Amino acid sequence: MIRPCSPRNAPLRHAIRAAALGLGVACAGLPPTLALAAPASQSQQRDWNIPAGPLAAALDQLARQGGLNLSFDATSLRGKTTQGVQGRHDSAQALQILLRGSDVQVQQESDKSFLLLPALDVGDALQLGATSISSNRLGETTEHSGSYTTGAVTIGKTPQSIRHTPQSVTVVTRQRIDDQNITNLTNLLEQTPGVVVNLTDSERVQYFSRGYQIDAIQYDGATVVQSSGGGSFIQSDSAILDRAEVLRGATGMLRGAGNPSGTVNLVRKRPTYEFQGEGSVTLGTWDAQRYVADLSGPLTETGNVRGRVIAVHDEKDHFQQSRQERKDVLYGVMAFDLDDSTTLTTGLEWTQLDATGAWGNLPADYDGSPLPFGRSTYLGADWNRWNRSNLQTFAELEHRFDNDWTLKLMAQRTHFELDDNGFKQTYFTRATGTANPTRNPYLMSYQVTEGDGGESLQNNLSATLNGPFDLLGRTHELMLGVERIRNDSYASATNNVQSGVFDIRTWDPKTSLANPNINITAHPVRTRTTQEGAYATWRISLADPLTAIIGARANWYDYEQENNTKASGKFSVDNEIVPYAALIYDLNENFSTYASYTEIFNPQTNTDAAGSVLEPVTGEAYETGIKGEFYEGRLNTSLAFFRIYQVGNALDDLSGPNPCLPNYTSGYCKVAAGKNHSQGFELEISGEVLPGWNVTGGYTYNTTEYLKDTTGNNGNPIRTTDPKRMLRLFTSYRLPGELQAWTVGGGVQAQSDIYNRSGSAEASQSGYAVYNAMVNYRFNDNYSLQLNANNLFDKKYYRQVAPTPTGYYWGDPRNVSVTLRGTF
């Protein structure tokens, strides 16, 4: 609260200093005092969640949350703003973070009393010297932090430090995105520990963690089912991102239905309180051109209305001949401070991608080994196309109550869409029978498929309420939430024509196959899913070093599929409960141990002999480990051990008939009897090891096994194309002294061998390492030039293998890019 001021409220020296600084000696001009009756020790760390906004309002929140007395002149703070403070800090550190960039200095008067003064140059007598508070702690926003780590992650709905998040989590920061010249989601996840990128084809990409598919992406905490977008999904462009947060393991509390793999939360840039601009031009191998413009700042004098707009144009050829792609991105976001406690944020993200595409890639021989085609070989036609657009609109309303509780309402609408006649691709299979009597592995039967439309419309509504409360003399935190996700997907209506048999050794993408006219007569298939969830999480402070977290989520899931206006499938899952539990123990000021148990469920459409839909597949994950936090959170380390079980996968019911009519015209009905597991450990580091030296990286060891499946699978890995061992590492160093304009960096992506077997045919790739390098030169505070080199030693390797006519994918050859970046 604000107390009326009087000469007794502050020592005489405060009044003298205030007068000398021009603050005035009248009662109306003396420093008011913000106070909270309940005291709190300044040195005790706690979790803060004070958003960006007017500085005076933020200081009021800090005083109430921390039990502090803050004395300052309100008029001197008029028009000043703050980026807020999140994460775990003591009171003095939190105060210093709030005051960054405000030209306000701090005089500490007692354990919980501070005087704030303008930082005017009035002589040594007013310099605070040793009594000044300094902190290098990071907030959750990574833009301009210069760091490879963050002070807090928001993937758990509320800000928490990495150290006090009881699961493995990786944050790819803005600085790292810039240093490695990461441009899209696939590039980003290829650099993330424990994540495997799988290509269905050139445009449909899947992500796996701990043996299971990551089947949904979050945008600012709102879930989007990537797989529902199918061939119309476009990977998010990195230019709009502040950071990406990757949480591994089962995450049913965060997103409802899915696999026990993990969740990716893409956190977009937001408007800033001060004007800033950035532009960059990148030129690179294969005629790559990329242009980015980013403008942000206040739109009113007080800064209560702010905006940001980002535009991207990206075009390039490919190392495979005749392949090209062109992408345009527009992102706009507005923030409105409706009052000191309420902020409304609205925005949109639009992306158009036109690509030649490759529906499959290079062939295997009959034994599964690769046929000898070079990296530039493209077995499609130059008139192939895979054109689509994505549009996402969102609105978020956040209200901060006087008791430190926060209510957040969010609505998001996502539209993935193939352009009209935007899909036309060649596809080939090995010629058989009379077309290939000698079993020539180079003879392929070509077909051309054209698609019309194909889209996914997803609507997400959510509300969360969280805040602290006192019980039995300790402060705890409670989070309540509800979420509704509706997804309407329309598979593309396609027709195809057979185009003959070709010897692919003489294939020419420009001349071998004429572009046929195809009349599309098929009807699209519509699939609708609706998920609803209600959840609660209680973060219990059992003792100063010991925190328990318990929670549960109730889920409802509806599925319906229609083909040519006739219902062909429908089922529901009601009140599926997903529990969550964790313990965190602070060993000392740097290390914490933790143990967590998480669950998730995944509905399935298979039916049993009675015609009933099988119960959902369930996944449960156990994880324990130790996390370290050093240099006020600027360096984070972790060691995690995990085990995951997935139970209830569909297996053939061998006791029933074959075919099992009417649901299966061929094959057996199904039973939910499968079981598999995944286990391993991860070691990770991120942040500043020494001044100017940033490091990020992780080592993963992961084994998986079918415990109960078809006879041929029992005892085998779930995915033989996932390496057991993976290393992801990147580091950069800003040179000291006269060379401080230079920053150099390098990294490596290494993995063990993989294989893919089908019958007696086997495709394989031995272990390999790919090295990258970066050099950056800063001309001044505003301009820099950066050189990136990927696959520095031009390693030849297959990033993906399969013993099929389209299953081999070369990794990118050596490529370089040069980026000129300017800020103002």
From TrEMBL:
Q: Where found in the cell?
A: Cell outer membrane
Q: Which GO terms describe its biological process?
A: siderophore transport
List keywords of the entry alphabetically. Cell outer membrane, Ion transport, Iron, Iron transport, Membrane, Receptor, Signal, TonB box, Transmembrane, Transmembrane beta strand, Transport
UniProt xrefs under SMART domains: STN
What the entry lists under PROSITE patterns is as follows: TONB_DEPENDENT_REC_2 (PS01156), TONB_DEPENDENT_REC_3 (PS52016)
- In chain numbering, motif TonB C-terminal box lies across 807-824
Q: How does it sit in the membrane?
A: Multi-pass membrane protein
State the Gene Ontology terms under molecular function.
Answer: siderophore uptake transmembrane transporter activity; signaling receptor activity
Q: What Pfam families does the record point to?
A: Plug, TonB_dep_Rec_b-barrel
Annotated membrane-spanning segments are none
Q: Name one GO cellular component term.
A: cell outer membrane
State the family named in the UniProt similarity comment for this chain: Belongs to the TonB-dependent receptor family.
Name by which UniProt lists this protein: TonB-dependent siderophore receptor
> What is this organism's lineage?
Bacteria, Pseudomonadati, Pseudomonadota, Gammaproteobacteria, Pseudomonadales
